[in-house]
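If you are new to this repository, start here. Below is one unmodified record pulled from the training split, so you can see the exact layout before writing a loader.
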Amino acid sequence: MAKALLTPRAVDFPRWYQDVIAKAELAENGPARGSMVIRPAGYAIWERMQRELDDRIKAAGAANAYFPLLIPESYMRREAEHVEGFSPELAVVTIGGGKQLEEPLVVRPTSETVIGESMARWIESYRDLPLLLNQWSNVVRWELRPRLFLRTSEFLWQEGHTAHASEAEAREYARRILRDVYEDVLVNVLSIPVVVGRKTARERFAGAASTYTLEAMMGDAKALQMGTSHELGQNFARAFGIEYLAASGRRETAWTTSWGITTRLIGGMIMVHGDDLGLRVPPRAAPVQACVLVVKAGDGVGEVARKLASALRDAGIRAALDDRVDTPFGRRAIDAELKGYPVRIEVGPRDIAEGRVVVVRRITGERASVPVDAVVSLVTEALAADHQALYDEALAMQRQRTAEVSSVDEAFEAAGTGWARLPWSAVGAEGEAMLNAQGVTVRCLVRADGGLPDSDDEPDLIAVVGRAY
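And here is the target side for that same chain:
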């Protein structure tokens, strides 16, 4: 069988990435610079991710809402560090209805300001807290070096915003989202191992008191920030007057958080799991987990294929039937490989004459002839095993390509082939600036026991260092 014509990953990883997106029909560049058209195959994957995230966000107590796309410029300027951090990325509307606007409107880059203004109206007393909100929306950040899914001027995401009565409660919730929502989806749905840590002051979200991050290693050993959760302290609450009447009768300022994850997840999934044949979609994230292909027309072939697809669906497996016999089978098989369907079931006249079909596992590459009545149980077992196999493979690479070092020079050298771990005390602000000047960043800080640091000043912190997208 002819193989898909993709640039090999080892030859040109960025070109391979673009090839996969194009040939698996996931997305393409939009008409405006930096914009993206997400095609049905790509959007179906996003919908799976979205559903898994949304279920967990709601389980954490947050309710979905929607806030305006256009934000008065004065709102952005009410939190000085925030507007300074986002200023280079802002898209601003100055004309509406053919007339100059009295006040320019910023196209939403993130919604702390507009949601903060609403929270100030909605919160009156401690009985209104915590206020836990989430929205699914698009945002615009003017991107100088766009790359599909990874960095585009417009992208899709969810952004959560909460207000609490105490700093401790806000911190606990920001970390709950990080662990119970984001890490859970990345590990248990996308099969992606992540390092969970704290951003340094240099890398912190503009206006935040603390930023927590999930960092994943891509197939070329670069890092990709997969999601972040922020403690905003009382910065935005003070700027927008988010206050409440405490049980004591005193007026108090609330503590707020924000957190978000984006369509960047699709890019991360491609780069962590893809191979030279195309996508390998983790079974739990796959819109199509099993594709039943009719090899060619013949007595009873179509009927067997339809019954198999139906039996798989009845077993809770997301199955698709491809009976387009007017399209060459080889092309359809390659398409299934490119799109990363975890299991392919080939139904042909010779096989069913013996009461068998061919089952091909995309993730392991195994191919076997099996009895028709064994297909459902075999596919069920394969999906579970292959989900774990993808995770184990990615984790093994992350460990293999992460070096334990003791100096900034050694960290820079290690970043040429992967990540480095070294004491934060050996880096500090000066060492971080030196690394940044050479295109290397401190991805996050972690405790030796894997816990999340409360500050950059804790003793014995470990810095995880690498080149990043």
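Two things worth knowing about this chain: The CA atoms of residues 195 and 427 lie 19 Å apart. Residues 375-400 form the longest helix (26 residues).
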